[in-house]
Amino acid sequence: MSPVVKRKRERYVLSTKYWLLILTLFCVATMVISFATDIFSKPLNSIGGYVVVPFQKGLSNVGSYILNRTENFKNMQSVLEENEELKAQVEELTKENIALGQDRYELTKLRELYELDEEYEEYTKIGARIIARDTGNFYSNFVIDKGSNDGIRINCNVIAGNGLVGRVVDVGPNFSKVTAIISDNVNTSAMVLASGDNMIVSGDLEQMMSRNVIAFGQLYDEEDKVKIGDKIVTSNISNNYLPGLLVGYVDTISTDSNNLTKSGSLIPAVDFRHLEEVLVIMELKENGE
């Protein structure tokens, strides 16, 4: 059995030349495959460039578009939220501005009343607010929120702005009615401050509405001293008004047909369109009714 075994072992043993041949063939095959791969890779790459690249580019563009839209939506939401906040701030600032404007307006009115109070400091006065008035654009007849409980009496003089408004004609416990000097058929004894010449100031709502003036007459001015712009004040002989209260300023003047007296118009010292607060003088004219 020994020779047989030896013969079988010799059949499966490869000599060195066979191994060299196998390695040579393997190298050649590798070179062929590598060469073939280079030949086919270029067409495949070219096909990929025409098919895959545009597809990838399209996906990239879609992704970018979605991303941009998402960012724009977020930005829009942010802008809308900021806009709402700004609107709220504007509304708040508008309210504050209105309140400040109202405070400034009231402060101006109060300052005017204070200055008027200082101008007529010899009289005791009480402040009052207008709570009602007749229909129309002018405060010719109105109601104030002070009455007999506050010491107000009939014929108490009422002032505002720069001068005389009118007088109290009716009094209740907590209200008073005032008739202004601009009312029709209301006559006020007055005088020219510069010359001391007397006149009668007559209320005239028609002239107030058309020219913002009231009439005066029965002025004796023989020496032609009275000029446009002269101050007119209540006279000492007035039955209902304390002396020296500013009534207005001469606007026009002309000689009457009798050649003895003069008449004309004057601009009231008070803005009778925009009255809100007044001062009531507590003292009465000594010979007042």
Return residue spans where pLDDT drops below 50 for at least 5 consecutive residues.
Answer: none
**CATH homologous group name of the largest domain:** Rod shape-determining protein MreC, domain 1
* CATH T-level fold name of the largest domain: Thrombin, subunit H
Cα separation of the termini: 171 Å
Shape, per Cα inertia axes = rod-shaped
Put simply, the count of helices is 3
Percent of residues in β-strands = 25-35%
Provide the spatial order of strands within the biggest beta sheet.
1-2-5-4-3-12
Secondary-structure element sequence?
Answer: HHEEEEEEEHEEEEE
Instruction: Supply the CATH class of the largest domain.
Output: Mainly Beta
The overall average pLDDT, rounded, is: 81
User: Radius of gyration over alpha carbons?
Assistant: 53 Å
- Number of folding domains? 2
CATH architectural arrangement of the largest domain = Beta Barrel
- Helix/strand-derived category reads alpha+beta
The total strand number stands at 12
Helicity range of the residues?
40-55%
Tags for this model:
Thrombin, subunit H, alpha+beta, 42% helix, six-stranded antiparallel beta barrel, 289 residues, 12 strands
Brief sketch in words of this structure:
The chain has 289 residues and is an alpha+beta fold. 42% of the residues lie in helices and 26% in strands. A six-stranded antiparallel barrel has the order 1-2-5-4-3-12. It has a six-stranded antiparallel barrel with strand order 6-7-8-11-10-9.
